[in-house]
Fold this sequence. Notes:
Blueprint: H1 3-12, H2 14-30, H3 41-54, H4 74-86, H5 92-116, H6 118-129, H7 132-138, H8 148-165, H9 168-184, H10 189-202, H11 209-222, H12 224-232, H13 236-243, H14 255-274, H15 285-312, H16 315-334, H17 347-350, H18 354-368, H19 373-403, H20 408-420, E1 425-426, H21 456-467, E2 473-478, H22 488-493, E3 498-505, E4 511-518
Parallel strand pairs: 1-2
Antiparallel strand pairs: 2-4, 3-4
Amino acid sequence: xxxxxxxxxxxxxxxxxxxxxxxxxxxxxxxxxxxxxxxxxxxxxxxxxxxxxxxxxxxxxxxxxxxxxxxxxxxxxxxxxxxxxxxxxxxxxxxxxxxxxxxxxxxxxxxxxxxxxxxxxxxxxxxxxxxxxxxxxxxxxxxxxxxxxxxxxxxxxxxxxxxxxxxxxxxxxxxxxxxxxxxxxxxxxxxxxxxxxxxxxxxxxxxxxxxxxxxxxxxxxxxxxxxxxxxxxxxxxxxxxxxxxxxxxxxxxxxxxxxxxxxxxxxxxxxxxxxxxxxxxxxxxxxxxxxxxxxxxxxxxxxxxxxxxxxxxxxxxxxxxxxxxxxxxxxxxxxxxxxxxxxxxxxxxxxxxxxxxxxxxxxxxxxxxxxxxxxxxxxxxxxxxxxxxxxxxxxxxxxxxxxxxxxxxxxxxxxxxxxxxxxxxxxxxxxxxxxxxxxxxxxxxxxxxxxxxxxxxxxxxxxxxxxxxxxxxxxxxxxxxxxxxxxxxxxxxxxxxxxxxxxxxxxxxxxxxxxxxxxxxxxx
Length: 524
């Protein structure tokens, strides 16, 4: 049997094909999951809340919401139960993201197969498989928003299956998962609302009052903790979303504001799909031109795919296109802005769109390049270009981040340095996130919180509160030599009995963190 025929048999086998997709996704995503990107304060906060839940010491509020009242506590339940079994490990939620991110790749293949056939599903899954945005954010960051792409994609798949089979049970299951999806991030109200509207207008045999009421009931069950929270504190999730400074609804929406948000979001998405993990001005001209070429090809394919789908696509393609466009256009109403990829803050709003985007590309590619050998070679070349270049850029970024200490290895070294000191508590955080307690045995009886993205005023308030309990505090902060916005200098000036203890350096000897001791008495 020839090598070509053996390969064709493997790819043609549904089980083997899906097994290879899932295994490859796991291998790619587990590489560097503990190192890149470095922890954000938001991620560490959610990890700590899951750890507190695992110890059975969660305040009642965290049984209903995961910090902000517009995000449910499903993340806390999921990771808290795992930590209760394995012990507190700040990397465990990241490992969960690796697994769910890999399963999202598989689900993308299954949706493509359901809508367009297995070849389109295979292409879509391969594109997502090597997507820098999906690897670095959805599959490496251990916070609630990283659950969103998996649960949203699974909800879509089950909804499509329910429609194709006219199955009430599948629809109810999809509705339950839709409720869980909504818990993971509030912006999912857009795609979930579109699915609900589609059910009302085009649901076929599923469009009857009893089924719709039961579907709504299952949806509410899926987010029951948020329902309870908004009953105890009337409409607190909505009120919070209207006033939270990072939410788009907190600011009057003008045409200019909307266009600025849309432009920023579009550039963020472009960077995610093309692998621009480092700003172009910091890259050699040749690499910048290569990345821009890939981005240009992707944009051209996107425009051609949208045009072809709108004019000649089958019905499900047009529905998927409408879903993607509406989702993309409505997001700037709910979100205020983005940060530069690979920082997780901006892309986490956009990552649920990636499976749909690659599905939209896959079907036209299959249709356009059916035929002779030349067309197949051209398709192979295009796919290799838009897969290999972005993924290679991600690997180069890994190397650069390792070289300059932009990894979690330095963070974890600092963490273990903190643990080695004898103190009442190890804390850093803002006035809202700082928790003074001796009863949080995540590392023995010591609570550790790395202070990233925190202001000097917030740190002052937190330290003052801790010192009022006559506690000794060890604070870790970004070293002022690499962070001009480091709050440490101003904070140190405010407390007479503060002293530097240790400087944490990366592999090149560059100072990354500085550990300070704060107390009500001088250091012995």
